[in-house]
Structure formats: structure tokens, C-alpha cells
Design a protein that fits this description.
The chain has 17 helices and eight strands. By secondary structure, it is mainly α.
Length: 463
């Protein structure tokens, strides 16, 4: 591998000749090789877009001049579309409040712009500091890019939840007439329909979709223009007043400059709140996936076989999609707790731990979007219900005698339940043999609309 020599305040280092990053990134790769994790591609695009808005504002205010301005703007537009992303390599577990990440993107932008002017990487006719980072600080650029990326990813999650919701609503309609035993504390309780069970999942995911929308509202204010600690030091006032407008135009997001830039630089409770809101999606996905596994175990539903289930047992298929969803949901809940600790660790005017906290947020958003789609496509879409088995198990269990309460009273219902328990008779036979009700009356009690009616109509004259 051929190299070039670059210099910074700490000395000289070798940099790969073709690399669009430079010495600051090389130092970060040496000092922060903790996990070799990577930020999502969307964050690279978000950072590039923030840099583009800054460069556009500086150029319009005549602080950047051609040919450097034109080359830098062209390079940043391409980067905002994803170009050169392979050179964005700093680990999220990096100290410095995101400085190394910011310098990584500055070096890529400077070298990409230099190429357009005919210069080899490392020439820095376009300078990472003087040009790519003009009127900026890591402390306003990095948090702003986090908000932009999170807004994009939350929109993706909202779309994934909408697809999941539509799938659940279809199952709710399809199974509206399928009666089954309800269960409390993992034991048989009173009758319900499978459709009504799926309605609970639909409602929960519908609320999640609304929650994600509210989380996006929390992140619309940014601290861009505040520079180091929110006072705007080293940035001209017209730049501070105009740059968020440029960013709003570039992202087509409803962004606004925070009223108190010092507060928005020091505190990230809005990100903490958004992550906490999103965590509830994980809670509901875990509940849904776990319930599907239980119903599959009970034989009420059959989840589609998608993977061979055993290396030794032929013909075994496991509910692996639901297991994947549960694992992802638990991971998200744990990462939210970790991120909350990191958000709380900000000291005075800055939070040095935002790089990892934001990475955990992004990773969780990716997990939730992907597992929502997995659940809809590979588990729910091919789900089948064993309607005959559910009805047989319902009438065979003494809990079904609860259906008799409103019509025949508690004493009769208890007598039927004990007859079923002691003899093994089902509800129909026990009622017939005790001269309580015939088969037609039991069928009437088992009608879905009867089971789902909200209480019973009292006799005329009663309150």
C-alpha cells in the first residue's frame, strides 16, 4: 500500500495515498478501534447535508469564493447523495464529543473537492478546517446531524409500523368470527375471538405510529450556528441567522433554530425523550412476538416455516422470526437505558458522550424498522388459524361455563363447570345432561357477536 505524509499539531503520519480521509482520521483509527462499528449510511448523508448548508450559506455571504466554493459545494452535494461513504470510518465509541467524526467528514469533503480542482488527496487546496469547517464547530454540526438523521430514520420506522398495522388489521378482519379461549396468567379464562385478540395488537401498533410521529416533533429544533458552546463564537451573525433555513431547504424537514443555543448544545433531553418514546415500540413488538409464539405453541395458530429448525431433528421448524423480533426488542430496551445514562453524563456546556448515545439510537431505529417488516412479511402474512381446534378446546374447558352466567346465573354455571371437570364432558353435553340448555342455545351463546357484546342487556324494568 502506497502512502502519503500528512502533518498536524502532533506531528507527521502516513495516510493511504488514495484515501479521502486524512491525518485526523488516521489518528482516530489508531486510538478508537474499539468495535469497528459504523454509523448508518443515513448519518453520513445527514452530516454531509449539514456541511452543505453551511458551505452554501458561507458562499452566499462571500466568505467562500470560487473555484474553492464551487468545488466544495459540488463535492458536498455528491456526499449528501452517498458518494465517498466508504471513507467515513471513525468508530462511534470515540472520545471528543464527535470531533474525530467531524474531522473525518471535513477531510473527505476537502479531498473530494480538491479532486475536482485537479489535486491529489492530501494536497488540501481545499482545506478541511478553513473551508469545509468554516463557521462551524463539532459541537453544533454533530448534534444537528444527529437530529436530521433521526428524523429521517423515524420516518422510515413510521412507514414500517404502518405496514405492520395494515397486516394486523387484515388478520383482525379475517379472524373476526373465530371463537377461542381467552387466557389470563397463562391459564384458560373466558371466551374471546381471535380477531379481537389481533385488534389489541393493531391498537398498540397504531399508538406506536402516533408516538413515532410525536418523537419526530421533539427533534425539529437544532443548535446549528451556535458553534462551540452555543454563543456563536467565530461565526458571523448573518450566517447564524440563515444557515438553518438553508438546512431546512436541503433536507425538506421542518427544522428550526433553537431559541437558546447554549441550552441546545449542553442538553440532549430531546433526544433522550425521543428514544424513550421509541422504546415503547420495542415493548409492544416484544409482547406481540411473544404472544404469537404462545398461540403457536398452543396450536391455535400456525406460523410459517421459514428456516430448518434443527441440525438433528428432521422436520422441525421453529418460530424464528418471532424470536428475532423479541431479541431485537430486548436489545432496544437495553440500549435506551444505556443511552439515557450517556445523555445524563453531559457536563456543563457539552456532552462528550453523544457519539455513542446517538449510535445506539440509530441502531435501535434500524432494528425496529427491520423487525417490524420481518414480522409483517415473514410471520403474519403466512399465518394460519386452526379454527376447529380452538372451538373444540373452548367448549371442552370448564371455563366455558362462564358463558352461562348472564342467562342462567352463577350457581347453574358453577354446577355445569364442576360436571365438566369431574366427567370430562364438554359444555354442550354437560348442559344437556343437567337439563340446563340444549345445543342450539349453546351455539347461540358461542356466537362471536354475543361473546363480544359489551356486557348483557338487563331485563326490562331493571336499571
Amino acid at each position: 500500500m502506497t502512502t502519503r505524509i500528512e502533518h498536524d499539531a502532533l506531528g507527521d503520519l502516513e495516510v493511504p495515498s488514495d484515501a479521502l480521509y486524512g491525518i485526523h482520521t488516521v489518528r482516530a483509527l489508531s486510538h478508537f478501534p474499539v468495535t469497528r462499528s459504523a454509523y448508518p449510511h443515513a448519518f453520513y448523508r445527514a452530516l454531509s447535508t449539514v456541511k452543505l448548508a453551511c458551505a452554501q450559506t458561507s458562499a452566499e455571504l462571500k466568505y467562500l469564493h470560487d473555484p474553492i466554493a464551487g468545488a466544495l459545494l459540488d463535492a458536498l452535494r455528491e456526499m449528501a447523495d452517498g458518494a465517498h461513504a466508504k471513507w467515513f470510518v471513525v468508530d462511534p465509541h470515540s472520545g471528543g464529543a464527535g470531533t474525530s467524526v467531524n474531522m473525518n467528514i471535513n477531510e473527505i469533503a476537502a479531498n473530494a473537492a480538491g479532486l475536482k480542482l485537479g489535486h491529489a488527496p492530501g494536497n488540501y487546496a481545499v482545506d478541511p478546517m478553513a473551508h469545509a469547517n468554516l463557521h462551524q464547530s463539532t459541537n453544533d454540526v454533530f448534534p444537528t446531524a444527529v437530529h436530521v438523521c433521526a428524523l429521517w430514520m423515524l420516518e422510515d420506522l413510521e412507514e414500517s409500523l404502518n405496514r405492520l398495522l395494515l397486516t394486523l388489521q387484515e388478520l383482525e378482519r379475517r379472524f373476526a368470527g373465530v371463537v377461542k379461549l381467552g387466557r389470563t396468567q397463562l391459564t384458560p379464562a373466558v371466551p374471546i375471538t381471535l380477531g379481537r385478540s389481533f385488534s389489541t395488537y393493531s391498537e398498540a401498533i397504531s399508538r406506536d405510529r402516533w408516538r413515532v410521529f410525536k418523537a419526530r416533533e421533539r427533534l425539529r429544533t437544532v443548535n446549528l450556528g451556535g458553534t462551540a458552546i452555543g454563543t456563536g463564537l467565530a461565526a458571523p451573525r448573518p450566517f447564524i441567522l440563515q444557515v438553518v433555513t438553508k438546512l431546512r431547504q436541503a433536507t425538506r424537514l421542518p427544522l428550526a433554530r433553537a431559541e437558546n443555543l447554549v441550552d441546545a448544545t449542553a442538553n440532549h433531553d430531546l433526544l433522550a425523550e425521543a428514544f424513550a418514546i421509541v422504546k415503547i415500540v420495542a415493548v409492544n413488538l416484544e409482547k406481540l412476538a411473544h404472544d404469537l409464539r404462545l398461540m403457536h405453541l398452543l396450536g391455535e395458530i400456525r406460523l410459517p416455516a421459514v428456516q430448518v429448525g434443527s441440525s438433528i431433528m428432521p422436520g422441525k421448524f421453529n418460530p424464528v422470526i418471532c424470536e428475532t423480533v423479541e431479541m431485537a426488542a430486548v436489545r432496544v430496551q437495553g440500549d435506551e437505558a444505556t443511552a439515557a445514562r450517556l445523555f445524563a453524563r453531559g457536563e456543563l456546556e457539552l456532552n462528550a458522550f453523544l457519539p455513542l448515545a446517538s449510535y445506539l439510537f440509530f441502531h435501535s431505529l434500524t432494528l425496529l424498522s427491520q423487525t417490524s417488516d420481518l414480522l409483517a412479511v415473514h410471520a403474519l402474512s403466512g399465518l394460519e388459524a386452526d379454527t376447529g381446534r380452538m372451538r373444540r378446546e373452548l367448549v371442552a374447558h370448564p371455563a366455558a361455563a362462564t358463558l352461562l352466567l348472564a342467562t342462567f346465573g352463577h350457581e347453574t354455571a358453577e354446577r355445569v363447570a364442576m360436571e365438566m371437570r369431574s366427567t370430562g364432558k364438554d359444555l354442550v353435553d354437560a348442559c344437556r345432561d343437567l337439563d340446563v340448555a340444549d345445543g342450539d342455545q349453546i351455539d347461540d351463546l358461542l356466537r362471536p357477536e354475543r361473546i363480544l357484546s359489551l356486557g348483557f342487556a338487563p331485563p326490562q324494568g331493571e336499571p
